[in-house]
């Protein structure tokens, strides 16, 4: 059962907080909320999920990619590790614009080589004509 009312109340407090400083390639827990249909939801009381900062545009907004620990295969997923012995999966099809106010706390950073591979995969998806 979706918790839209709880999420709407949480958004009020998130909107009033100051943005956290962030950089491209960093990974944060972010308040991504309770979303519609198959869009990735946040979890727990604070509706958070790990999000990779894919591209920073300024101090307020960025493109982010939600992460999951559920192993999924296919062109819409990228596997990498930023925590020893833990595989994270970037859900490339869920790339979206986020406001920095949604960021809760930094939990890691993707290494340069993995980020380059992920970026190549995202660009490939965007140029696909399927």
Any overview of this molecule?
The protein has 130 residues and is an alpha+beta fold. It has a single domain, classed as SH3 type barrels. 22% of the residues lie in helices and 36% in strands. The protein contains 2 helices and 7 strands. The protein has helices at 4-16, 112-127; strands at 26-31, 48-56, 61-68, 77-83, 86-91, 96-99, 103-109. Strands 1, 2, 3, 4, 5, 6 and 7 form a 7-stranded antiparallel β-sheet that branches. The termini are far apart. The model has no long low-confidence stretch (mean pLDDT 91).
Helicity level: 10-25%
Using the CA coordinates, give the radius of gyration: 15 Å
Order of helices and strands: HEEEEEEEH
Mean pLDDT comes to 91
How many helical stretches?
Answer: 2
* Most strands sheet: 7 strands, antiparallel
General shape? globular
Architecture blueprint of SSEs:
Layout: H1 4-16, E1 26-31, E2 48-56, E3 61-68, E4 77-83, E5 86-91, E6 96-99, E7 103-109, H2 112-127
Antiparallel strand pairs: 1-2, 1-7, 2-3, 3-5, 3-6, 4-5
Brief account:
It is built from two helices and seven strands. It is an alpha+beta fold and about 130 residues long. The protein has a single domain (about 5-125), classed as SH3 type barrels, CATH 2.30.30.110.
List keywords for this structure.
single chain; 130 residues; alpha+beta; SH3 type barrels; seven-stranded antiparallel sheet; 7 strands; 22% helix; globular
């Amino acid at each position: 059962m979706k918790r839209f009312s709880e999420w709407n109340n949480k958004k009020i407090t998130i909107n009033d907080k100051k943005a956290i400083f962030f950089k491209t390639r960093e990974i944060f827990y972010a308040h991504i909320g309770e979303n519609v249909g198959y869009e990735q939801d946040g979890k727990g009381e604070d509706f958070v999920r790990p999000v990779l900062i894919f591209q920073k545009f300024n101090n307020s907004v960025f493109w982010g990619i939600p992460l999951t620990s559920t192993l999924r295969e296919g062109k819409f997923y990228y596997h990498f590790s930023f925590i020893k012995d833990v595989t994270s999966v970037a859900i490339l099809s869920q790339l979206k614009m986020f406001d920095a106010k949604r960021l809760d706390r930094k939990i890691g950073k993707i290494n340069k080589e993995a980020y380059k591979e992920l970026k190549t995969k995202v660009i490939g998806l965007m140029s696909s004509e399927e």
